[in-house]
Task: structure prediction
Amino acid sequence: MSPISTVRAIELSGIDKSFGNVHAVRGVELAIEKGAITGIVGENGAGKSTLMSILYGLYRPDAGEIRVDGRRVEMEGPHEAIARGIGMVHQHFMLVDTFTVLENVVLGAEGGPLLAGGLAAARVELARLGREFGLAVDPDARVADLSVGEQQRVEILKVLYRGARILILDEPSAVLTPQETDQLFRILGALKERGVTIILITHKLREILAVTDQVCVMRQGRIVAERRTAETTAEELAELMVGRKVRLDLAKAPPQRGPVLLSAEHLGLVDRRGTRRLDDINLALRGGEIVGVAGVSGNGQTELLQVLSGIRAPTGGRLVVCGREIDAARPADPGEMRDLGLAHVPEDRLRQGLVAAFRAAESSILGYQKDPPFCRHYLIDGPAVTAHCAQLMERFDVRPREPALRSSGFSGGNQQKLVLAREMAQQPSVLLVGQPTRGVDIGAIEFIHRELVKRRDAGCAILVVSVELEEILSLSDRIVVMFGGRIVGDLPAANADERTLGLMMAGEHA
Amino acid sequence: MRLVRRALPRWAEVAVLPLVNVALAFVIVGVIVAVIGVDPLHALRLLVAGALGSSEAIGYTLYYTTNFIFTGLAVAVALHAGLFNIGGEGQAYIGGLGCGLAILALDHLLPAWATIPLAILAAALFGAAWAAVPAWLQAWRGSHIVITTIMFNFLAAALMVYLMVNVLIAPGSMTPQSRSFTSAGKLPQVHEVLAAMGIQVTPSALNLSILLAVACCAGVWVFLWHTPWGYALRTMGHNPDAAVYAGTDLRHMTMLAMCLSGGLAGFVGVNELMGVHQRIVLDFPAGYGFAGIAVALMGRSHPLGIVLAALLFGALQQGGAELAFDIPSITREMVVVIQGLVILFCGALANLPRPWLQSLFALLSSPRVRGEVPAQRAEGS
Result:
């Protein structure tokens, strides 16, 4: 570990912030060491993002003061934060896809009415930053052509270009492969060596342990613990975050395999532009087993879920779901798939899984709106729907338990639990789950995993698509790896580890 | 990004904000009226009296309201599906054609109790058919519905002129209108119905179409919020991806939404032709289709809101006509300006006074409102 400096880059004292009756941040005292990497962990809704938004000037605190380099600062807005050398890399990239890297970097800091001068200066500066921090990116490449990892580097470059000496990263690894994440950590290390102060917001304990010097745990708006990273463990941090003991490993019995409930033979999908999205997919899913689909996102997993769930019809090959044959000539829409006993938890719950503007109760029957008991005599039975939603919320611990609240009013983890609850409540024989725990906190991950295993043990065939290798490894009985729209590996979970899977995901056969 | 500014309580959102908007519009109108040399208060008195001052005035106000309800509902149903139906004008026109053709074909053969429902059905079917073509073009061919529905307004107008001048014109007539309907093709007037019940009111154009309008409001409400199809339609409007996920065929749903929308707009023809003109005439939609957009926006696309907005528009239409009649310096165009300002303040500028109201509420009840709904979610991640 690096030598411990006593200089404080940032001191927060007595920071308090409420939104209406939600007390998001309560009297936070926090000191960030200069030239170190500080991790901030906590469950969804613990107040991490709000705290960082206050530091970055997006919100004004109700009480408390902020000191940067020992001097008291009134954060009037992000421009104030930038002027003090604070930069933020958001979880969702804020890049213009059709612009080049160089154009994106100077955006908002053009330095004059004519672009040429600013661009030339930026090119020189970018080359320097690239050398100094190991952040090499082709300045003339279009952002749309870059990989996700490279796009993130552009975001970091943007912040450094504006002279940031204090860097806030919000869930930076959410979109990266394990290899890309390692690369990011090397970059963070290089930045630290050059004296940059880094604040890392995450809920992944592995990353905290791998890269930070100190870690602060937030729970319900408070900082409940501060630890030297070297002196703590994943178990301790998880317990501090959730407030009770958490089992990080998943105990499950060996699978009791039943009949094949879903099988794909030479399944293919060619999109409208003629690109082959799925190529010769062969897959058999048995009752009582969990099959994990590993792969870097964008290698056909999304399309696989779309075809298996009926959202898109296959253009080649054959699919059999609970005895019904499906091919290009005889497609089945998602409604029919549901009737066959196939349930689907989509990857992107906000875009597909629920309707943000609907009340939670309305979202809790999405896809089942024509089925009894929700619909009788062609009319939707409002009280029955509300009661159903309340029951789901109770069973899956969705908070707050308010069926009348808009779906968008719930945190990501609670939205996910609502969607999972809805799909599992139908007791499907085949369950497709995309990114079961994306954006979900540790306590809920544990719960969701145990529910999935419970359904497996009840004889359900489960397919899990996830970019979290750890999740795939702990949940699956069998793992298939996708690369370039093909299945490039199919192995029992017992024979798999992160390294072999990582190589297959990169298209190299292990 | 913005500082804490608490959301308004729901009752203020629904009741106070629109009233403030209307009041603002009338302040501006008052200034303009004063500039052309008329006492604004006098004009306002005339306007209100003209719209609500007598049973005849109320009758006409409600007659106009009926049309605004039909077109407002038409726009709202499409809006809930995420479709912007600008073609209410043409759908009303063709709906009227359907209504008129049905009556012309049947009024010598069937009694009124059989002709009237068939004519109403024909109005809905013709209006729906006129909306179905742009809907089909959007659903299967990707032509934008805003463009095609506008074009279909012109097509409808041209078609009607052709039909009225060349085909449907009454033999020997010099004006482009059909023969008069017989009494079997006449929708009872409200004053006649009331007279039969022993209540005497001054005759007006108000006819039983208003009951159809009320039934449509209830029907739309039940359909949108209490049937699985309405549920799927709203899902499509909010989030097409979620609708596909839920097993909805977006193309069929687009057709359904637009046909319902067109059918509702077609009922304007029932009110105008079967209720008032008693023959097929030209130009009877008179802008109701376009005004329906404002009615739907002002009424927040909810049947109840649409009824209130349609009442306001009906009152402005009738009161404005009286105003133009009584004060020569206020022309017909001036009345249009007044309506335009109300639409502007209630539609496009609807959120203008919101921050002021919010500050006012915060000031008035700072300790009490603290427990209200949070302005936004506390945590994003």
